[in-house]
Design goal:
The protein has 500 residues and is of the alpha/beta class. It folds into 4 domains: 153 residues, Nucleic acid-binding proteins (OB fold (Dihydrolipoamide Acetyltransferase, E2P), Beta Barrel); 152 residues, Response regulator (Rossmann fold, 3-Layer(aba) Sandwich), CATH 3.40.50; 48 residues, no CATH class; 39 residues, no CATH class. 45% of the residues lie in helices and 17% in strands. It contains 13 helices and 13 strands. The strands form 3 sheets. Strands 1-2-3-5-4 form a 5-stranded mixed β-barrel. A 5-stranded parallel β-sheet has the order 7-6-8-9-10, sandwiched between helices. The chain has a 3-stranded antiparallel β-sheet with strand order 11-12-13, with no helix packed on it. The chain is flat. The N and C termini lie far apart (190 Å).
Length: 500
Amino acid sequence: MPEDSNPTFASLFTRSAPPRRTRGTQSAKPVEPEDSAPQLGLFAPPPTQTPIETTRPIWTVQALVNDIRGRVETGYADIWVEGEISNLRAAPSGHIYFTLKDGDAQLSIVLFRRQAMLLRFSPEDGMAVLVRGRVSVYESRGQLQLIAETAEPRGAGALQIAFEQLKAKLAAAGLFDSNRKRPLPAFPQRIGVITAPTGSVIHDIVTICARRSSNLGILIYPAAMQGESCAAEVISGLQHFNETTSVDLILIARGGGSTEDLSGFNDEQLALAIAESALPVISAIGHETDFTIADFVADLRAPTPSAAAELITEAQHDIEEHIAQLTYRLARAARYQLMQARQQLAALSADAVFQRLAENFNRKQQRVDELRFLLEAIWQRKLREQSLRLRAATDRLHRQDVRRRIATMRAAWQQLTQRLAHAPQRLLQPLQTAHRTADARLESLSPLAVLNRGYALVFDERGMLLKSVADAPSPSIITARLAEGTLQAKVLMTTRKNNS
């Protein structure tokens, strides 16, 4: 095979300038070198080495791989490769590894964490993608790989795929649930609008709110409505209004645009900020046919910014319209009543009018007389009630006279004093009588009284009272107790009394 039959393969090992490549599915052929120097083969020594016929050139593996990597990276520094993803692996470090397949060929792809974070969709196995990057060689395995800088899906757009994936993720997290969304205040006093400070959007909102609710205050937080800073600035506006809490609700408004222009509102962090907002959020982004992630998360989605302004002022406008209708009906009823009164006045004569006036005056005078009589009766009743109350109070006051109370207490004290003076005599007299009675009884029962009548008590030598002659055998000493003293005697003889 001639050397120039495969220029792509030959360009791997020439240090020519990298060929220009255009974005697309067709592979562009490298530009041939301008000089006519012969191209080196796969196993040829470096151009700087001078081949020596007597020695063979020997490469170390690392030197050969490094040399090939340098040539590959120079020749394929920025290319687009199309294929189907397989063997997708996401490392804990954030790097993404997968294989790009096309027919029987495959190429290893590595997408480092920094570039992976910038993707607007999540790669999946079987997805057809277009990958941009540079070709390199992984020395540890001697493997050819493509270090990707970015990727986009083929077929459906990258923004649409990213939109569907984020929508499914947030729906699974419950951010779209209707029971999570809060009702809007019916009569807001002040609203916060996050939008571009100039343009027709803010003009329409201010005009509609001023026409439908003149007392509604509007605070504007200027933010970019497209581009890379769109989501961050809208999040900053949400945080500002939630921290100040000077508004009743928040409106995010933007006019129509392409899918790319509205992509800033398909941001996950913006969706989380809307869901975490303490204030109700209305999303009015694009036209009626445009839908963003912010629309699904917001508490209310308005088709257009003008429609959002009408929804905010709907309750106030309805009340004003109802008041206008009632005013019109009241004015019409008043005109009707006035017309009837004029007709009735025209039908009445002057005499009848004066007669009715006199009758009305007499009825009023009669009513005045009745009220006067009633007032007099009420006054008399009040006077009687007050007189009775005064008499009762006077009686109570007399009963509460201090001098009378002192005299009464003094008489009671004197009576108690007399009772106290006679109390000892009354208490001692029964006791003295009882004492005398007890003394007499005691005296009558005393053995000494018996002795005074000539009796004596006889005791033996042991001092025991003798009751029988048998208790004092002879000769024994006995003692006799008489009324005026005692005497001792000796028993000479005892005689027992014969009971028969």
